[in-house]
Design a protein that fits this description.
The complex is a heterodimer of chains A (about 325) and B (about 240).
Chain A (H helix, E strand, L loop, with lengths): L2 H24 L21 H11 L12 H4 L47 H4 L1 H5 L8 H9 L2 H11 L6 H13 L7 H6 L7 H13 L14 E2 L15 H4 L8 E2 L21 H11 L18 H12 L4 H4 L9
Antiparallel strand pairs in A: 1-2
Helix pairs in contact in A: 2-7, 2-8, 10-13
Chain B lengths: L1 H20 E9 L1 E3 L2 E2 L6 E3 L3 E19 L2 E5 L3 E5 L7 E7 L6 E6 L3 H4 L23 E9 L8 E7 L9 E6 L7 E6 L1 H5 L9 E2 L4 H12 L1 E3 L6
Parallel strand pairs in B: 1-13, 11-14
Antiparallel strand pairs in B: 1-8, 2-3, 4-5, 5-6, 5-7, 5-9, 5-10, 9-12, 10-11, 13-15
Classes of the chains: A mainly alpha (about 325), B alpha+beta (about 240).
Chain lengths: ~325, ~240
Amino acid sequence: MGRQQKLSFAMLFCILISVLAFIKTDEFTVPKNWPAPAYNFKNNPLNAAGIALGRQLFYDPLLSKDNSISCASCHLQYTAFTHVDHALSHGINDSIGTRNAPALMNLAWQSHFMWDGAINHLDVQALAPISHPSEMGETLNNVLEKLRTKQKYRTLFFKAYHDSSITGEQTLKAISQFMLTLVSANAKYDSVQRQQSHFTAQEKRGYQLFKTFCNTCHTEPIFSTYEFANIGLPVSKTLNDSGRLRITQKANDAFKFKIPSLRNVEFSYPYMHDGRFKKLSDVLNHYTTGVQHTETLAPQLEKPIILSSNEKVDLIAFLMTLTDKHYLFNPQFGYPK
Amino acid sequence: MARYLHIVAILFFSLSLTAQNKGGLKLHFVHPTGDGKMLQLDSGFVFNQKDSMVIHSLRYYISDIKLFQNNLEVYSENGYHLIDLSDASSLNIALELIKGIQFDEISFNLGIDSATNTAGALGGALDPSKGMYWSWQSGYINLKLEGKCNVCPQFGHQFQYHLGGYLYPNLAIQNIRLKVNRKLGSELNIAFDLEQWLLQLPFSVQQHIMSPSKNAVQISNAAAKAFKVWDANKN
């Protein structure tokens, strides 16, 4: 082999390695044995600059009318990106919304967002809180105007898109990029599945109960089907929230809400679309004794669920194994330094 | 080397040939309000012979433009165009046609198809910052009309019709197909006949439509019927 040939081989090798490294940092990794994501990454390929821009936007109160509320105001990392200890979230001017801020994780596997599925794609999800008068009360156009005045953002947009015009599409897709990286798949449950750890006897009993009573709707490994269900909650007279019906205008969608994932459920309290339950034991008590039988009730809840108090404790012990500390404390998801 | 030069020459020749064969067709949208007058935003006109009307905003999407000759498709383009009465340049859509192409019908959609409604954040005319995208519930507004009419009973006599909806049964997109009887020319005027459409709007009973509904579909359908090929000399 001539010297020149050797050199060109070496160069080719270097290029290959750098291309591989590039793919490695940028690609979205689907955890082992998980289904394919719903998000179409072809239309918005992840890259480090786009993710960094999205993270800045997620933590920037500039998105709200009076520059006081950011996405993170109601979606805090340490509580799996929900609003800790708030049944209903509040926005600008101390206004209160009508629903509990959902936890954010594994968004790439979801195709409908909000408790009623009003939003049909992750990219356009942020439009709802930005423009809602009880949340950020702002318009996308004003947000873009504000971003364009900031040198920091002109630079970040240029890095992400080689263009600093700052369009709505670019802004929304960058927020998606950051949110898509919010993957929680490293709880004790996951390490048990990988055979790197073991359940305690109590967790094992809880897992069996989970598989019997919960898994049809809170299906492993994501712990939700992300379908909509009426779980027989008494309807609040003040909120009078008909759920999915409002969106589809179909009678058989009355009082149905999106099934939340149970991952990190230890930290994502309070529970339900209106945050009515503070503790997991309240939730289990609802399923055993509180279910109201109405026409659209989930068929799985027609027959009563009977759990002894010991069994409830076991089930909760299993649910604790869905806590993913690597997710809750991952510095890459936190406030950008 | 000489061989390559040949190829380059042929390539160049064929490129210039295609360029010569391209012709333009300019679609121009007009908005008659009756008595030979065209819509001026923010200036009053008489409607239904006795009522006063002011339109502040009229915007709509035109998409999926196709041309037919003897029922055969001879041209199609995939663009989405936002016609906005506050921006005169948006009233023209330039189509690049093969020169001398004959057609006797034009078809286009008033609004945005369902697939595009579920495709996430899009750019250009479809950028959600254009004000034609609903935020609380995903979906494009196909057609937006805002203004004042003395028939509207509420304070300020205001009305707002934001017409859209991409899911059955409240699917609001409309296909429009019009016969074109013309000698070859480079411009085709299409009228959205407001005199006809405004008569069918429910000003006295429903002044605000802001989400997909049966009424939104009905009004969209009435709008589609008000599109016609416009002969500036005849009309």
